[in-house]
Every structure is written in C-alpha cells, then in structure tokens.
Amino acid sequence: MTDRFVRSAEVMGELNGLPGYPFAVIGHPIANNSDEILREKAVVAAARIVSLLTERQA
Known about the structure:
The chain is mainly alpha-helical. It has helices at residues 6-15, 35-54.
C-alpha cells in the first residue's frame, strides 16, 4: 500500500485483533509515476515483502 494509507491499515489491523500487523509500504502517489519510478517502488516493496516472509518477528 502507499504511505498515505498506513494509518488506515493500522486501524484495520487493530479492529481485526492484529495490532502491529506488518505490511509493505511504498511512496504515494503511484497513479502518475513513470515506469521507471514504479519499478523502483516495486523493488523496495518486494524487498520488504521478502523480509516480512522470512524474518522471525519477536
């Protein structure tokens, strides 16, 4: 999701009994980004997703 919606996602996690649920965040906006910028954001998001899936959370 984009950084503009982080607080909304945090609230949804809290309401669903999952406070602190981790997620990947990219910079907002994306609608008018060039392909190059979107690729850069995808690389950042993919790295975060990999870490979320492979690193043990305390």
